[in-house]
Amino acid sequence: MAKATYKDAGVDLDIYAESMSRLPRLVRRTHSPRVMKLDGGFAGLFKLDFDNSLFARKYENPVLISCTDGVGTKLKIAEKTGIHKTVGVDLVAMCVNDAICCGAEPLFFLDYIAMGKDDPDLLEDLVEGITDGCLQGDCALVGGETAIMPDIYQVGDYDMAGFCVGVAERAHLIDGSAIAPGDKVIGLSSSGIHSNGFSLVRKVVFELAQLTVDQHIDELGETVGQALLRPTKIYVAPVRKVLNHYKVKNVVHGVAHITGGGLAENIERILPKNVDVQIDGQSWNRPAVFPWLQKLGEIEEAEMARVFNMGIGLTLIVSSYYANSVKSIVADCGLEAFDIGEVIDGSGKVTIQ
């Protein structure tokens, strides 16, 4: 009987070693002085505060905030195009954008990548995207895991999960409880579909309309693949800038990351039971990909609003007196911000008119 090897079973440890050797240079680009070296260790080490007094946070009552998420079936678009350097940005975005809803400063990130067969080039592209996202989200990539699982994943298939840990002072946590009638809802523009609803997107675009990823769409001014792969916008910089500007005043009463469920369901998650939010659905510019997709699939407006962000990737619910100032700070970060609604007396519901 022939002697069995791990390679015969579908896992080549030599190729795995090559894959791992490509990653340290990418990971190091995300490190701050708070990342502690542990060469050859089994975990990532991160100091909660800086040693340098100039940058010391001097936390009084710090609370750790953790988030986890994936990219979903948007990965199938990456597989169709052969472009894998952007979905890592999506992975980071889906986690850090959740963390900042509590007022967190993202600290560090970890990833998990599962593949059917080890592919050093593919893994390098994925991790490069993750590190790009970490740089945008101002957090360090301190560790990860790559699992090669033949028979569970086909050759060329892969999946990704991400994990973010952040910190906030307990006194400055944002949980929506301060939202009150008269507050304004500010919407921050999305870059497009972000990373939700791609099972519907793929059904409409590739099954019903029979399009290919390299087809140019005149009304979009780009190919199908370019429109669908545009990475999720990361909102850490503008939100942190707003919160740092108002360290004493309680200006930001609620933050909602607009993912699956759309504006209504995600804002309702943070509303007290004594208020409603009225959204003016005509108050912002929708990226062209949404009307194109809606027409292509003959999708009902209510379905579009529930599945997709429709052009608003994050909302800030703020004191009305400071709304214009908050929008100005966001604009300074290069993002469009819109007055999209207001808070009124109610029972914890969102209506879009």
Identify the notable features of this structure and list them briefly.
4-stranded mixed beta sheet; 353 residues; 6-stranded mixed beta sheet
Description of the structure:
- With 353 residues, the chain is an alpha+beta fold.
- 32% of the residues lie in helices and 24% in strands.
- It has 12 helices and 14 strands.
- The protein has a 6-stranded mixed β-sheet.
- It starts with 12 loop residues before the first helix and ends with a strand.
- The mean pLDDT is 96.
Estimated structural class = alpha+beta
The tally of strands reads 14
Helix-strand sequence: HHEEEHHEHEEEHEEHHEHEHHEHEE
Strand order of the largest sheet: 10-12-7-13-11-14
Helix content: 25-40%
Number of helices: 12
What shape does the CA trace take?
Answer: globular
Mean pLDDT: 96
The radius of gyration over CA amounts to 22 Å
Distance between the termini: 72 Å
Unreliable segments of 5+ consecutive residues? none
* Major beta-sheet overview: 6 strands, mixed
Percent of residues in beta strands = 15-25%
